[in-house]
Amino acid sequence: MAAPIRIGTCSWADEALTKHWYPKGVRTAEERLRFYAEHFSTVEVDSTYYRLPDEPMVARWAERTPEGFVMHVKAFALMTRHPVKAEQLPTDLREAAPLDDRGRVERPPREFRAEVFTRFHRALEPLRSSGKLGGILLQFPSYVVCKDLSFDYLRWAVEQLAGDRALVEFRHRSWFEEGNRARTLTLLEELGAAHVVVDAPKTEAKNLVPTVVALTSPLAYVRLHGRNAKTWNVRGGSASDRFDYLYSPEELREWAAPLREVSESAEEAYVLFNNNRWSRRSDGELAAQAPTNAAALRQILDEEGIPAG
Q1: What angle, 0 to 180 degrees and rounded to 10, lies between the N-to-C axes of helices 55-64 and 29-39?
Q2: Are 226 and 245 in contact (CB under 8 A)?
């Protein structure tokens, strides 16, 4: 039996949604999450990339969403070797953190990182115990390239998740260059980790990986970043500039065949939209890109007879 393609957005609380998707009367954090969960059955939590989550907050997420709702959680930056400033750490960890001259954590020992993984894992217990925890997104930066040391770290990081499902996204083309692709996918399969399939600008930039539709675990995960090649590598640009893109119906329809194949092979399948700005509709009103595209893709899949939720 084909797995339904569950569609959602990366964050339910970014500026595009709060300004141009939620009704005016939906203002509080609780109201927004409840409203979101009425329209979509899954979401990716991206705020956890910037700060470690705490258990009371996660418990509120679990309480405010219906049974069967699935939340995927993005790993805290330090867990995927991104730069982190000392103030992003819990207070009691700051003194033990080795810092560079800009106040950023520099080459922390494995024991320090392991403690961060442990706290991250512990905080997610309310989602885990309620059956609402999907996977943990390990999004590696573009300077983590395909080499033996990176493979070793990936093995270690997946082990630190302590049984939670890993969703692995690479941001450097070397992982999928000829000679490396098979090795990369084989390792993910051995680790039981899901290869995150990406849709992004089609250029030869080193920090853009090609779209590789491949399953390495029973869980399939697709992230659509938009195809804005003009802003992807603009110096000084913000993340919202990079992901400023509204997919056309024709571009979304390109995904029907791959998603049909995915639904027939996976036990669970998710598509998350990471385009996080807003565009002007034909009626002149502004609309948030991610939920607009998510709803449109769901309709396309329904028309194609592909189960979607």
Answers
A1: 50
A2: yes
Q: What's the rounded Cα separation, in Å, for the pair 270 and 230?
A: 28
pLDDT for res 309: 84
Other Cβ atoms within 10 Å of 187 Cβ, number: 18
* Contact (Cβ atoms closer than 8 angstroms) between residue 271 and residue 254: no
| 8 A C-beta contact, residue 9 and residue 290 | yes
pLDDT at 110: 95
Contact in structure between 275 and 296 (CB atoms under 8 Å): no
CA distance 68 to 25: 26
Matching residue, tokens 């993340």: 239
Q: Distance between CA 166 and CA 67 in Å, rounded?
A: 22
CA distance 92 to 63: 29
Nearest to 106 by CA among 118, 97, 114: 97
Per-residue pLDDT tens over the stretch 136-146: 999 999 999 99
194 and 269 Cβ atoms separated by less than 8 Å: no
